[in-house]
Amino acid sequence: MAKPGSCAAVLLLLLGFLSVSSVHADTLLSAPLNVTIREIEVNSAMVTWEILEGDPVIGFAITQQKKDVRMLRFIQEVNTTTRSCALWDLDEDTEYIVHVQSISMEGSSPPSEPVLFRTPKESEKLASKSPDEVTMEEFGEAAQLRAGELIIIVVVLIMWAGVIVLFCRQYDIIKDNEPNNNKDKAKNSSECSTPEHPQGGLLRSNL
């Protein structure tokens, strides 16, 4: 027959185990929900997720892994309420597996369901882009090119205007000097001509 003291000790241990399990269950975080990969580019992507309302989440942890490759990339951030994270430096035409975990003061949640996605090839991305689609980066480059072209055109026009003004000044100077040149030519021609004898017959010498 069991002693009363031993029964009491067993009951206390059982109650303590149940209370610890209850506290652990209350503080255990739920895994993130609706994990989605968006904005998939050749070398980058964006992962988003949701959490259960009321979970004391202070951060997140993301594991990124190439399919059929053991090497992992681990991304962790705390003291944040964001529900998205950029994945960078990806390889084109490659499959990746992503898990997301929530972080609280007590620890981490179980990992989310794995999400598989594939980055496109560079050629596929260019082919899928509409001819009328213009990104902000392309727009900025086009604006810079247009600004440079306008500066070059303005400089060329200013240079041509200067050449025209200089030509007009030289032309005016040459035109103003033409009457003086004509007078000098006439004067020189009159000085070089033979003087004429006065009319009246030949001079006779007195004998």
UniProtKB/TrEMBL annotation:
<keyword id="KW-1133">Transmembrane helix</keyword>
<dbReference type="InterPro" id="IPR052120">
    <property type="entry name" value="FNDC_type_III_4/5"/>
</dbReference>
<dbReference type="Pfam" id="PF16066">
    <property type="entry name" value="DUF4808"/>
</dbReference>
<keyword id="KW-0812">Transmembrane</keyword>
<dbReference type="InterPro" id="IPR013783">
    <property type="entry name" value="Ig-like_fold"/>
</dbReference>
<dbReference type="GO" id="GO:0005886">
    <property type="term" value="C:plasma membrane"/>
</dbReference>
<feature type="compositionally biased region" description="Basic and acidic residues">
    <location>
        <begin position="178"/>
        <end position="188"/>
    </location>
</feature>
<protein>
    <submittedName>
        <fullName>Fibronectin type III domain-containing protein 5b</fullName>
    </submittedName>
</protein>
<feature type="domain" description="Fibronectin type-III">
    <location>
        <begin position="31"/>
        <end position="122"/>
    </location>
</feature>
<dbReference type="InterPro" id="IPR003961">
    <property type="entry name" value="FN3_dom"/>
</dbReference>
<dbReference type="InterPro" id="IPR036116">
    <property type="entry name" value="FN3_sf"/>
</dbReference>
<feature type="signal peptide">
    <location>
        <begin position="1"/>
        <end position="25"/>
    </location>
</feature>
<keyword id="KW-0964">Secreted</keyword>
<keyword id="KW-0732">Signal</keyword>
<feature type="region of interest" description="Disordered">
    <location>
        <begin position="178"/>
        <end position="207"/>
    </location>
</feature>
<dbReference type="Pfam" id="PF00041">
    <property type="entry name" value="fn3"/>
</dbReference>
<keyword id="KW-0325">Glycoprotein</keyword>
<dbReference type="InterPro" id="IPR032073">
    <property type="entry name" value="FNDC5_C"/>
</dbReference>
<dbReference type="GO" id="GO:0005576">
    <property type="term" value="C:extracellular region"/>
</dbReference>
<feature type="transmembrane region" description="Helical">
    <location>
        <begin position="150"/>
        <end position="168"/>
    </location>
</feature>
<keyword id="KW-0472">Membrane</keyword>
